[in-house]
Specification:
Elements: E1 23-28, E2 31-36, H1 41-46, E3 53-54, E4 61-62, E5 75-78, E6 83-85, E7 96-98, H2 104-108
Parallel strand pairs: 1-7
Antiparallel strand pairs: 1-2, 3-4, 5-6, 5-7
């Protein structure tokens, strides 16, 4: 078994089929990115990067856990401070997402500290 660590800039997910949906432009931490119409925020981010975010307490990389909205591991923030569950929120044009580590209290309050 390999113990090689994946670079945070390498996508965790790779599309192998069904690529003909309309493109959706959004930003991740201020950087332009593109998803496909109908993608969840989780899919949109993980087709761009190796991790969804870093845990607000341990700072370890996270990529979602249950992928069905039950575990709260996939929370991300919008630039306006709104918390989104990445696995059950669909990407929308112009959505500005934050995945950078944030203070645990700031994250817990949804960016409204």
């Amino acid at each position: 078994m390999s113990t090689e660590i994946m670079s945070p800039s390498q996508p965790l997910l790779h599309r192998v089929a069904e690529k003909d949906r309309a493109p959706v432009r959004f930003t991740i931490d201020g950087q332009p990115a593109m998803a496909l119409e109908g993608d969840t925020v989780l899919t949109a981010i993980l087709t761009q990067r190796a991790q969804l975010r870093r845990n607000e307490f341990s700072h370890e990389p996270r990529a979602g856990f249950c992928w069905m909205g039950a575990c709260q591991d996939c929370w991300v923030l919008t630039d306006s401070g709104e918390r989104l569950r990445a696995c059950s929120t669909f990407i929308t044009p112009g959505l500005a997402l934050r995945t950078e580590p944030v203070d645990a209290m700031d994250f817990a309050s949804g960016g409204q500290a």
